[in-house]
Write a structure and sequence with these properties.
By secondary structure, this protein is α/β, with parallel strands linked by helices. It has 13 helices and 16 strands. The mean pLDDT is about 95. It binds aspartic acid (ASP).
């Protein structure tokens, strides 16, 4: 029996750390080290391992991820697993989902507990990711699943998964949709298929993105009680010097901001795309319930782009990608409308 060819691409992160002389964990392990720690992998798959970088995911760049996506697109294999840090996995996985369309499993995984601890989760997560990549249901539905994340024996859609805790083992969840599958014993138990229409609509607009384009910095601003809007003032007055090409606004409730900053937002939306996303972390925003100067009705009329149910971190990834692809304002509105 020929085993599935699974390509592991290691980026770095806690899963790839080792202690230095002082005991502090430093990036160090490569893809071969990660594979060597789990001898069982050789029975499940024909494993190829490649070290792409040795950086924490908090320091990854959009450019690096575009290069990674190009690499994944070109691989002649039956499945791809990216190992990385947990800090930005919810963003990197979503970006790969936007950039890579393949009919083989593409999986991101990581570790919360480093290899020097008594019970590191990296080896178990890598084993689980390989099991998922080799599983017949996952392989048959690879395109319908999109890029997936495998953490602590659960499988999540990259477009929904969130890091919900900074340290504990069960740090990942998909609060809006729940997991797509679970691992039990040596089996993958399918639970659901994701709704892919918004990702597919975005991909149609984004096109092949063969030229990765130039960095398009997007600022993420979290709205909070009595926010005075000084940063918005600076953005309005010095947008060119600051370099931001777009703004994501994590708004209160169904899409609200403090009344005192509504005029500034109206000004800002005239000079740069401003996407409104739920501060609550996800769930569809309102469109036509509340009136008043800083309600969803007023903000939509003022030209703010409605981010729908997309988490603010994911909305920022999507806006950067739209701007890189050179989409104009109506096209960007269209892309975000699909998440309404
Ligand atoms: N700071 C690390 C990273 O994201 C944390 C981790 O891997 O869990 O690379």
């Amino acid at each position: 029996m020929t085993l599935p060819r699974i390509h592991i691409l290691a980026l770095g992160g806690t899963i790839a750390t080792r202690p230095d002389a002082s005991g502090a964990m430093q990036m160090g392990l490569g893809a071969d080290d990660l594979v060597a720690a789990v001898p069982l992998l050789a029975q499940l798959a024909d494993i190829r391992a490649e070290t792409v970088s040795r950086v924490g995911s908090h320091s990854l760049s959009f450019d690096q991820l575009h290069a990674l996506a190009a690499k994944i697109k070109a691989l002649d294999v039956d499945g791809v697993i990216v190992t990385q840090g947990t800090d930005t996995l919810e963003e990197t996985g979503f970006l790969l989902d936007l950039l890579v369309e393949r009919d083989i499993p593409v999986i991101v995984t990581a570790a919360m507990r480093n290899p020097a601890l008594t019970s590191p989760d990296g080896p178990g997560n890598l084993l689980a990711a390989v099991r998922v990549a080799c599983d017949p249901w996952v392989r048959a539905h690879a395109k319908a699943l999109g890029v997936i994340a495998v953490m602590l024996d659960e499988v999540y859609a990259a477009s929904d998964v969130l890091k919900i805790h900074p340290t504990r083992l069960n740090a990942f969840a998909s609060p809006q949709t729940g997991p797509l599958a679970a691992l039990v014993e040596d089996r993958v138990v399918p639970l659901s298929l994701p709704v892919r229409a918004p990702v597919e609509a975005a991909r149609r607009r984004l096109g092949a993105l063969t030229d990765i384009g130039r960095e398009q910095p997007v600022a993420l601003l979290w709205m909070a009680l009595d926010e005075p809007g000084y940063l918005l003032e600076v953005l309005v007055d010095h947008r060119d010097q600051l370099g931001y090409r777009g703004i994501v606004l994590a708004a209160m409730g169904g899409g609200h901001v403090p009344e005192r900053i509504a005029p500034l937002l109206t000004q800002l939306a005239e000079i740069v795309p401003v996407v409104v996303s739920p501060r609550a972390g996800g769930g569809p925003l309102l469109q036509q319930t509340y009136g008043g100067p800083s309600s969803e009705i007023a903000l939509r009329k003022a030209g703010l782009i409605w981010g729908g149910r997309l988490n603010p971190l994911k909305a920022r990834v999507l806006l950067e990608t739209c701007l890189r692809a050179g989409l104009d304002r109506p096209a960007i509105v269209d892309v975000f409308d699909a998440w309404a």
